[in-house]
Specification:
The complex is a heterotrimer of chains A (432), B (82) and C (365). By secondary structure, chain A is an alpha/beta fold. Chain A has helices spanning 14-25, 54-65, 125-133, 151-161, 175-184, 189-201, 252-257, 295-310, 316-335, 340-343, 360-363, 369-376, 386-394, 412-416, and strands at residues 5-10, 30-33, 69-72, 76-81, 84-88, 93-103, 107-109, 122-123, 142-147, 165-171, 207-209, 212-217, 224-229, 232-237, 240-244, 247-249, 261-263, 268-270, 283-285, 351-353, 358-359, 410-411. Classes of the chains: A alpha/beta (432), B mainly beta (82), C alpha/beta (365). Chains in contact: A-B, A-C, B-C. The B-C interface holds B 62-64 and C 216-219, 291, 293.
Chain lengths: 432, 82, 365
């Protein structure tokens, strides 16, 4: 079976699932690839204790049940050459031919350095959700949630659902900003419902705007945090600190493919036209990689990208709904701008590059990212600069735009001796 | 959660954990350390989604595996830096 | 204010070494570098300090430089590691050439030993079975080149050199004009590697592209810098594209895997095809590499002169214009020797080795 797929969709979150469904519905042979063992992406990540939320289950079944979608879990795209992707799964590496590509690589959490952030027990807010859904036993653990953005509420919800004692949610944005953000949500009824249901389930959990965790304390693991907020300076004992400063588009694959990006504020996103087409004729992008817009926007963009990749005309109403959903990006960006307080948390001795243990003070003297990288190894470690790169961009140390393969650390056998395209089953179904 | 349990060997010690969870979740539940950084600091999972590489451990003899990306299997050998 | 004893254009490892050496001699120096110090071929290099013996002049310059590198073995940022070089013979034919190579190295005063098959596997147990033997050069080592270039520039600046983050637009009698229009006066040394023809079009340079792959950190798999004896054929051959087994244990526990050589490759993009060829070659010698993870792949361009020897010395027909460029794959090894040779000539002193083979006049006559 060496026949090319018509369309390869990278990422099986809301955008990728919608794209695969739309393209397969138009009669195209689709391959849907995700590095995780289960479909859903991050926002619909399968929960070993609670399964999938209903919309996720519907969306996944919609993509997998029809004909024409080949589902490849635990599969990482590691490089791209003309007309095919180099991919690897836990067993093998091989070349996967395609005609068109839909990038639905989603977002990563923005994790910023502050004193103590490397201690075991400090996780991302999205990180807490992901680990809880993977089966982290949180029952009885004292969890404090901090950072910025709507994701903090979702993290609190997940933590509580898994039995954690949630000590509070500390949002760096001011109370006035949060109220203004919430008042503007009527324009996106779906968001309103999400926010309301989260607030409901959070009843009894303190929500503290204008509040920043300034340090994580502990010897070999987290034991307490220091907080500065409207109530002044306080210290709270806790077992887990879940801290995230919002989401940033995951551009690694798009950059590797040579797709143009653009930067509206601080972090770049894939530049697409109204049909979700990138600067490369055969490549489309949808969802968070085109800017943080949430799952409703991702699904609409996914459908558009899937149809466009299949060469099917796109209903005007669909484009209009996408434009409306996309406006949420600007609403979000306007309200969760990070305050200088957050940017100034890291000290000279705070590690910024966690892979190579490079402190901020070693990076400061360098005129640009490349010079800092060559002199300090900042960003040269296993995460390939994914964590420190976004952090340094946020802190104003220049963007990181490295686009060389491999997209992820890759077995040398995959790079040197890729297998022939294996026989790939269609629609292997899902586990829920 | 699945009622099945699987038996791992963590740093030579057999432990039973729920099936279908990730190796990262298993080690977090056991309150086991993950890795030491270059300068010797203890590190544990940060992102939970395969991006940060802080949860790297040795799995069945293969070094530098991201524990959050691997589901536990019966008879799996996991070795950490401590 | 803008008059100097020497204006060094280019702060790769060669230019940086020249600037450092000149300031050590008390000269008033300007360094012109628009990009990152050590950010070109220097950053892309493996950092292997090795004597190449295929050409007497190449061997003389390598040997002279290797002795100068001994001053850097205790400098932490140099990350010097005396891993030694192990040249590997795959078959009887390659093995039969080792005694002659040994003799050439011995003549140059470089310690080396013939390695029979049994000893080869004692030294490097992970090597593939069936190899014939090798040649071990125990005192060679590896360094981290971009940090050294930075260090050399810093030392020069501490001694009063001025640093100009500017493009050099063009040379003019008695100096150089920078992109911002300012003019620096004094003797000029062009050390711009592959970019040499932009300022000195009479000295031909070809860019020879190379790829390198670096792994994640692991427990040591190899101890020596390992090269196949066929490496020199690849290095000196005229093939448009060739690969050779060349693997280096970094002090970090990472393994650096080379090498490829390509003429006429115009872009710096990673060619997955070359990577594939290069890795397949490396698996022939070190099958255990297959299971390791690659972290990064990058490319670089080696500046190649007409005859493979660097251009070191005064540029004929141009007043007070000097050149140090065209070191191909030996720029790191021979940077320190090149700098000494050049500054001695600039100061009209006797050189430690015969400088004639590197005289740029050879290609202009």
């Amino acid at each position: 079976m060496t026949e090319a797929f018509d369309i390869a969709v990278i990422g099986a979150g809301p955008a990728g699932l919608a794209a695969a469904t739309a393209a397969a519905g138009a009669g195209r042979r689709v391959v849907l690839i995700d590095s995780q063992p289960t479909a859903g992406g991050q926002v619909w990540r399968h929960d070993v204790a609670h399964g999938y939320p209903a919309p996720a289950r519907r969306s996944i079944q919609g993509a997998m049940s029809g004909h024409g979608v080949t589902w490849l879990p635990e599969t990482q795209v590691v490089a791209a050459e003309s007309g095919h992707l180099l991919v690897q799964d836990p067993r093998r590496g091989y070349r996967l031919p395609y005609r068109s590509l839909v990038i639905a690589s989603g977002a990563r959490e923005l994790l910023l350095p502050f004193p103590g952030w490397t201690l075991p027990g400090v996780v991302g807010a999205g990180g807490l959700q992901a680990l809880a859904k993977q089966g982290w036993a949180l029952r009885g653990r004292r969890v404090l949630i901090a950072g910025s953005g709507p994701l903090l509420l979702a993290a609190a919800h997940t933590a509580r659902r898994h039995g954690a004692i949630v000590l509070g949610v500390h949002e760096q944005a001011s109370a006035a900003t949060i109220h203004h953000f919430a008042r503007g949500l009527w324009r996106w009824p779906g968001k309103l419902a999400q926010a309301a249901s989260l607030r409901l389930s959070l009843a009894g959990i303190g929500y503290y705007p204008g509040s920043v965790v300034t340090a994580a304390l502990g010897d070999d693991a987290l034991s307490a945090v220091e907080i500065e907020g409207p109530r002044g300076h306080e210290r709270l004992d806790c077992d887990v600190l879940a801290v995230g400063f919002g989401l940033v588009p995951d551009l690694t694959l798009a950059r590797h493919l040579g797709c143009a990006t653009r930067t509206d504020h601080v972090h770049a996103q894939v530049d697409v036209n109204a049909q979700q087409r990138t600067s490369r004729d055969d490549t489309f992008a949808a969802g968070e990689s085109c800017g943080i817009g949430g799952r409703d926007c991702a699904r609409l963009e996914g459908t558009i990208a899937g149809l466009a990749a299949a060469g099917v005309p796109i209903p005007a109403a669909l484009l209009h709904r996408r434009d409306h959903a996309r406006a949420f990006t600007r609403h979000l960006d306007r309200h969760f701008i990070l305050s200088p307080r957050v940017h100034d948390l890291a000290r000279d001795d705070t590690v910024v590059c966690r892979c190579e243990d490079v402190p901020l003070g070693a990076i400061r003297p360098h005129a640009n990212g490349r010079s800092a990288k060559l002199a300090t190894r900042c960003g040269m470690g296993a995460c390939q600069g994914r964590i420190c790169g976004a952090a340094l961009t946020e802190l104003g140390h220049g963007p990181s735009t490295d686009a060389r393969p491999p997209v992820f650390p890759t077995r040398l056998s995959t790079l040197g001796e890729p297998d022939r395209l294996p026989s790939l089953p269609v629609s292997r179904g899902i586990s829920t | 959660m699945s009622g099945d349990r699987v038996r791992l060997t963590v740093n030579g010690v057999p432990v039973d954990v729920p099936g279908r969870i990730s190796v990262a979740a298993a080690l977090l539940g056991l309150e086991r350390p993950f890795r030491r950084s270059l300068s010797g600091q203890r590190r544990a999972p940060l992102c939970g989604m395969g991006v940060c590489f802080e949860c790297r451990v040795r799995i069945d003899g293969r070094a530098q595996q991201r524990a959050c990306q691997v589901t536990v299997r019966d008879a799996m050998r996991v070795d950490t830096d401590d | 204010m803008s008059t100097f004893d020497l204006i060094v254009i280019g702060a790769g490892i060669v230019g940086a070494a020249c600037a450092e050496k000149a300031t050590a001699e008390g000269l008033k120096v300007a360094i012109i570098e628009p990009g990152t110090v050590g950010g070109g071929a220097t950053a892309a290099a493996m950092g292997h300090l090795v004597a190449m013996d295929d050409d007497p002049a190449e061997l003389a310059l390598s040997r002279y430089s290797l002795a100068l590198w001994e001053a850097f073995t205790d400098l932490p940022l140099a990350e010097f590691s005396r891993c030694g070089t192990l040249w590997i013979a795959s078959n009887d034919d390659e093995f039969s050439h080792i005694p002659a190579k040994l003799a050439r190295l011995a003549d140059a005063g470089i310690e080396a030993e013939l390695v029979e098959a049994a000893y080869l596997y004692e030294l490097e147990p992970m090597l593939a079975r069936g190899l014939r033997g090798g040649l071990r050069v125990p005192r060679e080592g590896v360094v981290y080149p971009p940090a050294i270039a930075r260090h050399l520039v810093d030392r020069a600046v501490e001694r009063g050199a001025t640093f100009h983050a500017q493009h050099a637009s063009h040379l003019q009698p008695g100096g150089v004009t920078l992109q911002n229009g300012s003019v620096l006066h004094g003797p000029v040394l062009v050390a711009t590697g592959c970019a040499l023809p932009q300022l000195l079009p009479s000295l031909p340079i070809r860019a020879r592209k190379g790829h390198l792959v670096i792994t994640e950190r692991y427990a040591p798999m190899v101890r020596h810098q390992l090269l196949e004896l066929g490496y020199a054929d690849s290095a000196h051959g005229a093939d448009t594209a060739s690969v050779a087994f060349n693997v280096q244990p970094r002090p970090t526990g990472q393994i650096l895997i080379g090498s490829s050589r390509e003429y006429d490759a115009n872009d710096a993009d990673v060619s997955m095809d070359m990577v594939r060829r290069m890795l397949q070659r490396s698996f022939c010698f070190l099958p255990g590499l297959r299971d390791l993870d690659a972290l990064r792949i990058w490319t670089g361009f080696r500046p190649v002169s007409v005859d493979g020897l660097p251009y070191l010395g005064r540029v004929p027909g141009m007043a007070d214009t000097w050149v140090a460029a065209g070191h191909e794959g030996l720029g790191v090894t021979t940077s320190l020797g090149s700098a000494s040779l050049l500054i001695d000539q600039l100061l009209s002193r006797a050189t430690a080795i015969d400088a004639t083979p590197y005289d740029p006049a050879r290609v202009l006559s």
